[in-house]
């Protein structure tokens, strides 16, 4: 003799299965799911690299600013910047292009 599930038991089973599938899908694809977490971790690593690169640039700028300040003037750096930025030359120099 075969037992058949009642309609209410079948509906309950199907509903439970659908809810389980929905929550499993949400755990993987949802806004706080596994795939979003992997994406956020990759973005975090990329932003950390950019932050480190920007910190290095700030340190270089601070070094140049200090070397051109009134307290410590690097004449070679001043001469280099004047030539590059302003296009200045000494009277005894010859330009080769």
Automatic annotation (TrEMBL):
<feature type="coiled-coil region">
    <location>
        <begin position="37"/>
        <end position="71"/>
    </location>
</feature>
<dbReference type="Pfam" id="PF04977">
    <property type="entry name" value="DivIC"/>
</dbReference>
<keyword id="KW-0175">Coiled coil</keyword>
<protein>
    <submittedName>
        <fullName>Septum formation initiator family protein</fullName>
    </submittedName>
</protein>
<dbReference type="InterPro" id="IPR007060">
    <property type="entry name" value="FtsL/DivIC"/>
</dbReference>
